[in-house]
Amino acid sequence: MGRAEQDRVDRTIYHKNLKRVVYVFAETAGRPPADCVVDIQADRLAGGTVPEAASEGVDHSHGFVRPDTARAVAGRTFLSNGSGVKWWLPDAYHVDFAGEGEWKITLDVFRDLGLAFAAALVGIYILLVGQTKSFVIPVVVMLAIPLTVLGIMPGFWLLNLVAGSQVGQYTDGIFFTATGMIGMIALAGIVTRDSIILVDFIHLSLAKGRSLFDAIMESRVVRLRPILLTAGTALLSALPITIDPIFSGLAWSLIFGLVASTIFTLFVIPVTYWLLYANKPGHGLPQSED
Question: 101-284: what CATH class?
Answer without folding.
Answer: mainly alpha
